[in-house]
Amino acid sequence: MLRLEKRPQPSRLWTWLTPVLAVLITMLAGGALFATLGKDPLEAIATIFWRPLFGEFAFYYRPQLLLKGAPLVLIAIGLSLGFRAGIWNIGAEGQYIVGALAGAGVGLAFYPAESWMIFPLMVLAGAVGGWAWAMIPAVLKLRFGTNEILVSLMLVYVAEQLLAAMALGLMKNPDGHGFPGSRNLRQYESAHNGELISGTGMHWGVVAAFIAVIFAHILLNRHILGYHIRLTGQAPRAARFAGVRPARLVLFCLGTSGALAGLAGLFEVAGPAGQVSIDFNVGYGFTAIIVAFLGRLHPVGILLAGLLMALTYIGGEIAQSNLGLPAAAIQIFQGMLLFFLLAVDLLTNYRIRISSREVA
Amino acid sequence: MTEELLAVRGLTKAYPGVLANDRVTFAIHEGEVHALLGENGAGKSTLVKMIYGLVKPDSGEMTFRGAPYEPPEPRAARNAGVAMVFQHFSLFDAMSVAENVALGMENPPALRDLASRIREVSETYGLPLDPQRTVGDLSAGERQRVEIIRCLLQEPRLLIMDEPTSVLTPQEVDILFQTLRRLTSEGVAILYISHKLEEIRTLCDHATILRQGKNVGSCVPRETSAREMAELMVGAAFASPRRAGRDMGPVALDVTGLSVAAPGHFGTSLRNIHFAVRQGEVLGLGGVAGNGQDELLAALSGEFRVDAEAIRLHGKPIGLLGPAERRAMGLLTAPEERLGHAAAPDMSLTENAILTAATREKLTRHGFLKWGEAEDFTRRIITRFDVRTPGPGTAARALSGGNLQKFVIGREVLQRPEVLVVNQPTWGVDAAAAAAIRQALLDLAANGTAVICISQDLDELMEISDRFGALNEGRLSEVRGTRSLSVEEIGLMMGGAHGMEVAHG
Hints:
Helix content of chain B: 25-40%
Radius of gyration of chain B: 23 Å
Number of strands of chain B: 23
CATH class of the largest domain in chain B: Alpha Beta
Helix content of chain A: over 70%
CATH architecture of the largest domain in chain B: 3-Layer(aba) Sandwich
Shape of chain B: globular
CATH topology of the largest domain in chain B: Rossmann fold
Order of helices and strands of chain A: EHHHHHHHHHHHHHHHE
Mean pLDDT of chain A: 90
Distance between the termini of chain A: 15 Å
Radius of gyration of chain A: 22 Å
Oligomer: heterodimer
Low-confidence stretches of chain A: none
Largest interface: A-B, 23 and 42 residues
Distance between the termini of chain B: 39 Å
Mean pLDDT of chain B: 87
Shape of chain A: globular
Number of helices of chain B: 16
Low-confidence stretches of chain B: 498-505
Largest sheet of chain A: 2 strands, antiparallel
Number of strands of chain A: 2
Largest sheet of chain B: 7 strands, mixed
């Protein structure tokens, strides 16, 4: 009979081994899922994990990895700070949209003037936009004790309506022959977040993601504020005893995650997406939640998890077009990853013992 | 003594990295009170858990009333006639006494019948308790009676009690002892775990002493001094705390009209508390658990904000300041609950040192942590307070309760407080370590620190405090010099025997 025994302290080995194990189990279960859909499971798994990196068209897909990974990592880093402190920002998707709208709005307001100052201003506006959107659940939580999970989540749908209103109204391209969507920022030199090194997918958002990883690592390991974040998540009563002010942490964590999500939105709208359109958001804000947990809320882990998740996105698209796998199957596959991760997470704090009942 | 009731032979249990019990052999006879003595981590809990069927031994055997006995789970132990009163009660605050008792029974009778049986048992054994009362309104002593009565309804042959008197007033201890004597006169055996050696000398017929999982001897407590027993437990001689003559300075902490509304539904409100502590003085605050001790500590630490003028440190009003600001001014505190309040369970000892020492020990520069210095400070605590641990990187939850307590007290003492407030500083700590902690508190006072010691251990308070007051339902009694107090007076200050009258209603 299997028994769980609590470890005296969390196992360091398993902390790093569980994500790998979760990926492997996901491959097995996902393979079974694809098999029941009548696809060759090995082919499907290879398409998702192997083709984008080493397949025939890898030269095209590899830059995509950075393009898709950057927003995920940027958002997940912000979310992980709050998650560590037990502050649950589920609405990064909304902050991502509002950041994009604010940043793009600044860019479009200057059109067609050209200046090197426009792009930095847009970056600032993007961060402020995301921050402000995240301040709504923060202030409501502090003022009225509302639940930040619900408020931030519902604000995503508000943000989506705002996006649609902007794409169809205020920000609509005056020269667009009535089609919805803003001017294309890729054709506006001063506002374009282009590739820094041609053919690599490297843009300012990727740089920002790397900076965020380093910043978060230093914050959590070297700074008293990061210490207070970890303390609050692990032992809230001890945190109050230490003198941590919960209100300040709520403002900081929601604010930072909002700002980073806003930045991700801005880099996306000014770069790969190019314009404000109705279907601008593709769920990075939600996937980033998986990325944050897959990366163990650890900055370096999030970096790796973000790349892995980007891989399943790209591989998933290839599998959809080449193998005819339904899009929902890919989403289930990504969901499985989180599911199995949470399941095997148990091994970090518990060990499994095999015992027979007859021992006296 | 009469017949052998429970015999334990060569019982062994290993946990990863520790041999909790190493071939323990002893026997309990019918009608005797048998004490189980030992330091923290000596293996007492593991042993009784094996007897109660909560833990399965790796090897060894037990016989109960002559028959082989190996309970796979507590239910089997209860059916065989073994009952246990735990140190931590498993009661639901919002339910009545009778409902709580019913929840712990295999086949509970109708509530009305149960209520009359509870009355019957409570009267027979002199444990006054009204079955209709809500548990949330009961004192700790009364809650314990609920647990005891729950056990007695099963008509046990062996009753295991884990530190039963830590929550009782002296009068309540007397009532409990009368009950236990009555039980033994009926042939019931009692296995009694306690740190209070004087109590064991009064009550127990035999004592088995465990050290590092081994049975290192037995004695007849009545014929052995408390000191000899303590030294058997520790395996070495140790010094009793000594108080040096000292001069009291001016008032360091002045509490005037401190009132705090209870935070939760079952918390205790503090009502108009007044006291002052002078530099070099130890003020002992006694009282039965749950009479406002936690709330008073929270009000002093800054976790609760109170009226600015209600607390003054060196004359400055500090009621509105938070924990960090108060620490910076020299007011340090050590709460009772170690895991989760005084320390974060999953964090390392170094991280837990930063928890309260960041400011005073200057462990940060521009907000950045100085890990090296934090670790040095942690090592100093470990060395100075003899914290048994592999090193500063160990998680707090991996330490035994007593060792973590030494760490928590040491962390505050080494920060050279001007006023130190401790709640239950030696709770669950073995005799030698408790003596060391008390000595450290006295040494602080000798150097001019004002010490407030909140404790339920009256012997401790009598030993170290200059003046004594008792908390009762959130009120503080008159504060009086310790030397002139008798045990009866202390009992009355603590609120006497809780609920003596209700059972007759």
